[in-house]
């Protein structure tokens, strides 16, 4: 024991003598290239801005320099798994953040457990990440499928409402529909039919026709609720098939600004969103909007806010824990509250899911604005959103 202490002391003195600065290493393991690369860029820009804001621009915590190592999963689960192992093992990172895809995230979760290191999931959404596949090293700043589902159920439900769903056939889509159906229980709203299609689908004719046939003879206020990530633009393509002839209205949650341009076809459409830059009113969001506009020439987007929330959480956790020891970080982060562009977030102790506000919107179209505006109807705060715990605890 004395030899170990002496060796550590000599190493520390050598570090000081050499003038080297201790580092806090963070790996951002995300789909930098691939079908969701627009989401990925936003997430990374937001992460870096969150670290910057939380450290007052120094990019240091208690004199230790923050180093961010980027690793590109290319949206492939096996890549995500291998790159996270590389980050924890070879790069000796203290914390990892990412990825974009739920499928990639599910492959990465066991790696965090194997290496006993923190993985902050941002922005992958599937419930199972903090549900059936969760372990104690997983924290998520991004919203989960249940938060989307409960918020959209509040926005869309009613005693005479009949709903069809269209979603991508993988964890994000199936978890999203399952959570949405659960959230609608007791509201008098009926889900009449569900359609799942491959993630790279571009022709929605067959799925839409099946939905129309299932809904055409149904009485009540009829909606087609779409859960979709990435390209393909099912909303516009189905709208071109005139669902209104069957009395069907389109409905969906929020999205990035590029996707919101297609929402201009749906003035008055309601739903719930994770973030739109005009909705939150707080000091951090004001800084984010102003700084992002100055640096990039656009307002911050959906996943920029999420990345920033993750960066802010990293700094808050390390400060609260007094370092980067994993067990100390877990103790500090369970129940931790911190401020973000969306206002207060809190890591629920039972499953490490970040509880947070969502925003009920109604689409407004304005001349001269490239995207539809999800105008705020109501902020749905943490206490308004009964989010189930799905990890068995």
Automatic annotation (TrEMBL):
Give the signal peptide, or none.
Answer: 1-22
Q: Where is the Leucine-binding protein domain?
A: 23-364
Origin: domain of life: Bacteria
Keywords tagged on the record: Amino-acid transport, Signal, Transport
Spans traversing the lipid bilayer: none
Question: What processes does the entry annotate via GO biological process terms?
Answer: amino acid transport
Q: What InterPro entries does the entry give?
A: BCAA_transport, Leu-bd, Peripla_BP_I
| Classification via Gene3D superfamilies | 3.40.50.2300
What is any Pfam family matched here? Peripla_BP_6
Family designation: Belongs to the leucine-binding protein family.
| Name this polypeptide is given | Amino acid/amide ABC transporter substrate-binding protein, HAAT family
């Amino acid at each position: 024991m004395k030899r170990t202490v002496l060796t550590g002391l000599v190493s520390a003195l050598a570090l000081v003598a050499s003038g080297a600065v201790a580092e806090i290493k963070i790996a951002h393991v995300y789909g930098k290239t691939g079908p969701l690369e627009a989401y990925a860029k936003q997430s990374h820009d937001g992460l870096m801005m969150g670290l910057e804001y939380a450290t007052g621009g120094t990019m240091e915590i208690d004199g230790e320099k923050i180093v961010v190592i980027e690793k590109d999963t290319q949206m492939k689960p096996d890549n995500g798994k291998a790159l996270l192992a590389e980050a924890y093992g070879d790069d000796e990172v203290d914390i990892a953040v990412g990825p974009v895809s739920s499928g990639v995230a599910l492959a990465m979760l066991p790696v965090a457990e194997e290496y006993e290191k923190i993985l902050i999931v941002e922005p992958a959404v599937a419930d199972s990440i903090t549900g059936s596949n969760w372990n104690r090293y997983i924290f998520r700043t991004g919203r989960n499928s249940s938060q989307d589902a409960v918020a959209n159920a509040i926005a869309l439900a009613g005693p005479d409402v009949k709903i069809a769903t269209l979603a991508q056939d993988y964890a994000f889509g199936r978890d999203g529909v399952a959570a949405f159906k659960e959230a609608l229980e007791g509201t008098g709203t009926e889900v009449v039919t569900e359609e799942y299609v491959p993630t790279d689908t571009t022709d929605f004719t067959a799925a839409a026709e099946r939905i129309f046939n299932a809904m055409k003879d149904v009485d009540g206020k009829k909606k087609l609720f779409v859960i979709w990530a990435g390209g393909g633009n099912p909303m516009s393509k189905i709208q071109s098939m005139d669902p209104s002839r069957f009395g069907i209205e389109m409905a969906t949650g929020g999205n990035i600004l590029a996707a919101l341009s297609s929402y201009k076809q749906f003035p008055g459409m309601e739903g719930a969103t994770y973030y739109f830059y005009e909705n939150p009113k707080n000091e951090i969001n004001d800084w984010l909007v102003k700084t992002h506009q100055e640096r990039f020439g656009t307002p911050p987007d959906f996943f920029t806010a999420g990345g920033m929330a993750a960066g802010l959480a990293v700094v808050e956790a390390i400060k609260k824990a007094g370092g980067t020891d994993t067990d100390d970080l877990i103790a500090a982060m369970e129940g931790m509250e911190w401020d973000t562009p969306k206002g207060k977030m809190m890591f629920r102790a039972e499953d490490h899911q970040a509880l947070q506000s969502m925003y009920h919107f109604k689409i407004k179209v304005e001349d001269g604005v490239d995207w539809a505006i999800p105008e705020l109807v109501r902020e749905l705060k943490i206490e308004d959103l009964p989010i189930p715990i799905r990890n068995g605890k």
